[in-house]
Each structure stands twice: as structure tokens, then as C-alpha cells.
Amino acid sequence: MAKITKLEDIVSLCKRRGFIFQSSEIYGGLASCYDYGPLGVELKNNVKKAWWKSVVQMRDDVVGLDCSILMHPMVWKASGHADKFADLIAECKKCNTRTRVDHLAEHAEEHTEHVSLDIAQAAEHDLSNKVCPSCGTVGKFTEPMPFKLMFETQMGANVDDSMTLYLRPETAQGIFANFRNVLDTARVKIPFGIAQIGKSFRNEVTTKAFIFRTREFEQAEIEFFCQPGTDEQWWNTWKDLRFNWYIELGVKKENLRLRDHASDELAHYAKACVDVEYKFPFGSGDWQELEGIANRTDYDLRQHQRGMRTLNKWYENDRELTNIDLAGEADDYQKGPLSYFDEEQKKRFIPYVIEPSAGIDRSALAFLVDAYDEEEVRGEKRNLLRFHPALAPIKAAIFPLVKKDGLPDIARNIYDDLKKYFNCFYDQKGAVGRRYRRQDEAGTPFCITVDGQTKEDNTVTVRERDSMEQTRISTDKLLGHLREKLDL
Ligand code: GAP
Prior knowledge:
Blueprint: H1 7-16, E1 20-22, E2 34-36, H2 38-57, E3 62-64, H3 73-79, H4 81-84, E4 86-91, E5 98-100, H5 101-106, E6 145-148, E7 152-155, E8 163-166, H6 172-177, H7 179-185, E9 192-201, E10 216-226, H8 231-248, E11 256-260, E12 272-279, E13 287-297, H9 299-316, E14 340-342, E15 347-349, E16 352-359, H10 360-371, E17 372-377, E18 380-385, E19 396-400, H11 407-418, E20 424-426, H12 432-442, E21 446-450, H13 452-457, E22 459-464, E23 470-474, H14 475-486
Parallel strand pairs: 3-9, 19-20, 19-21
Antiparallel strand pairs: 1-2, 4-5, 4-6, 7-8, 9-10, 10-16, 11-12, 12-13, 13-16, 14-15, 17-18, 21-22, 22-23
Helix pairs in contact: 2-10, 3-9
Glycyl-adenosine-5'-phosphate (GAP) binds at residues 113-114, 170, 172, 202, 204, 213-214, 217, 219, 221, 289-292, 355, 357-359, 361-362.
């Protein structure tokens, strides 16, 4: 059972062991931006590798993609983000703090991600008994107003050709914009998916909670294209697959659940959505979203067909998005440039899309919290991270028992040999017990110690992190033994 019950404990562990640091710390830090340290970057890379292996490498029906962060502004007009991707906020009249209206309702941790913006409904929010989370004043708020979440930037040095671009708020749109390219080049047939991992940016109103909600974060998304009518079956399939991925990587079942979105929570593009939620043990102990699995129907491909037809209006409008109406739906939209022709059925249609969309940073946080454990060993506290081997930043640490008698040379040779296959760490400083404890806290599954006996019979001790059991293994069998245990 994880013993971390306060967010500060995980923040402090992450800093102490070099998992995660505050960004720009030497200048006092930059709010809600974080840097991954030596262990953190390994953990995060392993989360990405495990995701890619599960959804691309091990499947015949999903291919990968890596799109640029900056995209044509019309992408965001067509997707609906330029007009609808906003939070409803209210400003405290006393301290001027702006808070998301849905967060005021709970005035603590929250479930809700970004919901469709409905300004018409803004007036329905009664804030008279809501408390400002910053100064505690009750009921003194401005009228709710929309706050746009996309970061803007300018491209181009010349006034004539410069234009406003957006840092992408989701990786998904790069996939939709490349649907035709992949279809024409990758010999794929529906049903198939396109997967991508990459950075996304949102000018979040409420951040806090460490790396749970930040303004720059990494997403791992699949857009799975299927025939309309089969979408609900594929939604159920992906729901199970994605839930089980977390369990297979060691998250305790009692800390994970699926939660269906209520209709007023759905994003502007979704017909249905279910969240994979993790029970973080701090804050109000609420369940929090790790991943959403949405049924996006044919919304995005249809919208991009309309966007493509409207592109000239954008040029006529001095490359501005405001006041552009997307072209109305043509009668033949099912035959448009983003449609699919099914050879067997001799039928053309716009595919429906099931989208499992995970947060890499959030998953890394959940894996960290879930793996954390404390226990007493011979009267002393032992802190450890019981990471699944696939996620462990370091797979094996190699120690000479003492710094003499030729043991460091033997240990170094073993280290040089093993590091060709997986991430290893060499350490010869301090008492061996302390070296074990440091690796326990980094989540290293195996420690290998070279001692006097190694010189006699070519065996080393292999100590297992969770059970602390030690076995003697001959050095020529070491690599095979570790690879089998690590499943690498
Ligand atoms: N394309 C769909 C989409 O972006 P989302 O629910 O807004 O859906 C998907 O985001 C996942 O991305 C979330 O489940 C979460 O893990 C991650 N995510 C979203 N906003 C985030 C933020 N501000 N900080 C960290 N992760 C975030």
C-alpha cells in the first residue's frame, strides 16, 4: 500500500531523487512547468515505450506518426478549438483571482476536464454562495466569462507574411490532418488506428497538483478509424484494452476505475467518453482522470473537409480566423477528400473515430505514487518504489563489495557488458546496505554485488528489490537471468 498521503511528500521524493524539478528553479521557478531529472526522464521514456509497444508495435492495425506542434491556423478553426476551447471563469472582486467556475463549485480538487463552452449557459451559474479559493470571500464574483486556452504565437519575420499560430492543445488534430497521407501511403484498411506521442499546450486557469495539470504536457493519443455502426463495439474494446494496460504495468486494481462522462461533461466533438481514473491518495482523495476514451464520430474529418473548402475565405480575411464561417455541409460530404472507399463493400463513407487519449505526465505520476512503499526492515524504515520492471528507470545496479582486491574492475566489466542491453548503474561508494537502499528508492529491480567469492568461482549475488532475496548466479548466466526476469 502506498504510504504517500500528501502531495508535498511526492514532490519532495521527486526532487530528492532527481525525478522531477521545478522549471527555471534558479530564477524562482516558472509556475506549473516542470523538468524531468535523470531518473524522471528514464521513467517517462519507459512509460512512452510501454505505450508505443502496446498500441503500435504489438498491433497490426495501428501505425505511428509524429506531427509538428505548429499547424495551419485553419486546423483549429475546423476542429472547433478556435471558437470553443475555453474555460468559463469568474474573477473574485476582492482579490482579482480568476477561477474556473466548475472548480468553484467544489472549491478543491476537481474531476472535470475542459467541457464544451456554452456562453448562453453562463448566466445560469449561481455564484452567490461560492468561496474564492484564494482569499475566502463568499459570493463576490464577476459574471462568468470565457477564457481561451490555446497559446498564441507569431510566425514570420515580415509583416506581410506573418500570421498568428497556436501551440497545439491536443496532438489529435495532426493525425486527422494526415489521415489522407497515411491512407494513401501505409497500406492500411479500415478499421485501423494512427498513434502519436507529443507535447501539447494549454493556458490552464487552474494548475497546481504538481505535474497533474500543467500548461505544457505530453499526450499519447490514438485515433482509431472504423466504419460507422461499429464504433460502439470499438469503443468498448479500447476501453478494456486501455484499462488493462495500467493494471499490466502494476497499478493496483483498487486504485483504478472507469467513469462514464455525463452528457454535460462531453467535449464539443464527443458522442460518448469514458475516463480511466486513478485514486490519488492526497488532496481530497478524489478519483482523477488519467486518460479519456472518446467516441469522436466523424466530426473531425467532416470538419476538416469543410475547413479545406473554406480556406480561400481565410486568405480573403487577412489570414485571421475571426468572422470565418465554415462552408455548409455539401450533399456529397460522404464522398469528400477525407472519405474512405471500402473495396469489399464498394461503399464510400467518412470513418468514425474512437480516441484513447492518455497523459504521459499524469500516468508517470500515478505510476510513481502507486509504486511508492514504506516498510520496516530490522528496525529501520525502508522506502522503495515497486516499479514494474518495464518502467524502472534503472534495471540493474552493479556494486563491488569493497573498493580493493580487484573487485571494482570485475564489477565494471559486468556493468560495461550489461549496459549494452538495458539501463544500468555502477556504484562503489559507501556501505553496501546504503547502496541497496538508494537503489530501492530509485525503484531498481536488481542489485548485483561482486565479492571475494566472485574471484574464486565467477558467481555474483543478485538481490531482488521487492523480496530482498539474494541468489548466487554465475556471471555467464547473469544476462540471461536478468533478461528473463525483466522480460526484456
Ligand atoms: N484529444 C483529446 C484530449 O485532448 P483531454 O481529456 O483534454 O482529451 C487527454 O486530454 C489527456 O491528456 C488527459 O486525460 C490527461 O491525461 C492529459 N492532459 C490534459 N490536460 C492536461 C494538463 N493540463 N496537464 C497534464 N495532462 C493533461
